[in-house]
Amino acid sequence: MNQLSLANGFNSADIQPVKIKLKPAQSAYLDKRVTKSQRENQRTRSQRARERLRTKEHLTRLAVGLGEVELAEKIDRCHSRLSVLTCGRHIARIIPNFTCEFRLCPDCGRRRSRKLQNKYLPAMRAFMLHNKVTPVHLVLTQTHQKENRKQSAKRIRDAFTKLQRRGFWNQHFKGGTWSLEFTKDKNGLHHTHLHIIGFRRKFFDIELLRSEWLTATGDSHVLHLKPITDIAAGLREVVKYVSKPLDIRRFGAEDLKEFLGLKNMRMFGTFGEFRNFCKDFEPSDNDAAAVGELESLARDLVEGCACPQCSEPLFDLRMSAKELPQFYEQAESSPPGEVRKSSH
Ligand SMILES: [Zn+2]
Ligand SMILES: [Zn+2]
Fold this sequence. Notes:
Blueprint: H1 2-13, H2 28-42, H3 45-65, H4 69-77, E1 81-86, E2 91-96, H5 106-131, E3 134-140, H6 149-164, H7 167-172, E4 173-184, E5 190-200, H8 206-217, E6 223-227, H9 231-243, H10 253-260, E7 268-271, H11 272-280, H12 285-291, H13 295-298, E8 315-320, H14 324-333
Antiparallel strand pairs: 1-2, 1-8, 3-5, 3-6, 4-5, 4-7
The site of one zinc ion (ZN) has 7 residues, from loops.
């Protein structure tokens, strides 16, 4: 009897993998992309923290190999010591000793993408309400050519500028955001994807958009479009490429060298009427709270404040970056209500 109820208990606690219904993929890479981001979402915080450490070690090694000692030291120092504001179970805030601001640093990338989300989400919500537009995620692609990342990025951005000058585009879109994603194919050719959150004025036949893209690029009609039902999730998806412009595990010394040459390239921007809207937009307190995810509220928390998630008092825990994954692990496995008391 006891065993039976125990077994039942375990069954109900089993978490079923989330199945997301997908439209048939229109090209192979998109199919992979979805499974990749699904996998990423399923990873725990401790796994993601460990991965960030590994990525940074890899980057540091590459930088040393290239003789970029200063860069290696900066990456190594970045987020190496942390002040963690926690109730023992939840983390309200992490303050790092130092941030390197290197574009490929996963810790700095996370900060950057959070900043972008906090900045643009309230504006997006207000813009949608104001203009009665609906957001879509549009991925524009290019043909693979023998060129470097810089050339490839310029080629796709130039094509997008052409597209924006066309009547069809202006009839159907009222601006949005763009971000770049760098990829490499099996033959080692670089190509760039342009991820766009477009605010759609009205429905259109996708084939028309394909032929417009073909006119703008001269050789590619390949694009993918999906409606965004949750704008916060949609924005998170596209700013991900700002923090992770490419797959760093498959990244070699040559790639790093080339990336160092891209220093001033913009990876994210706004366009069209949304661009102008953002210039004048001042978020209200309500907007800031709506961005929420406790993120913006956590900024003012200090030791002794109540944890926003469970109301237990927060305390300041100093640790090294290497200890963070284990701390996450403890927090993930401690049952609700059982709060680890401060030991200092
Ligand atoms: Zn960094
Ligand atoms: Zn808590």
